[in-house]
Amino acid sequence: MKNLNKEQVVELVNSLVNNSSVFAIKVAKVGVTVAEEGQVIDTILVNGVEETSYTCKGGEFIIQNPDGEKYHNTPEAFAERYMYNEGDDFAIAKANVRKLVDVPASELPITFPAPWGGEMTLEDGYLNYDDMNGIYCIGREEFNNTHKITDEKGVIL
Fold this sequence. Notes:
The chain is α+β, with helices and mostly antiparallel strands. It contains 3 helices and 15 strands. It has one domain. The strands form 4 sheets. It has a 5-stranded antiparallel β-sheet. Strands 7-6-3-9-8 form a 5-stranded antiparallel β-sheet. The termini are far apart.
């Protein structure tokens, strides 16, 4: 397992942008709950790997993908990414184009700092670089179950 710091993750993404860039939109309907202070969210991938863990401050949205993977979003990030009616137990992803790189197996597995603190582990999948200061991973199977590949304008290919 390669342990990368934040700068090394940015370097990795930059080295892959020209050869393995992917644009995609999330199309999955997701489950939603509101976190309580101190609630721990362990993001476990379909293959059983713990991708990351986060202790909630309270008020964050807990998103559960159709395959069971859970993660959190701040209220601001959630509003940018999802259409949601208060009180519902689900949300629909907005058609925001995401910028990712498909990380080759020769570079994996990696562990690196998660944008929200702690560490993330990627054994197979993508690095999302919508914000180069907030790079995070999406497991391949989770990506395939929740996203569609698009062009850079969001047209599904």
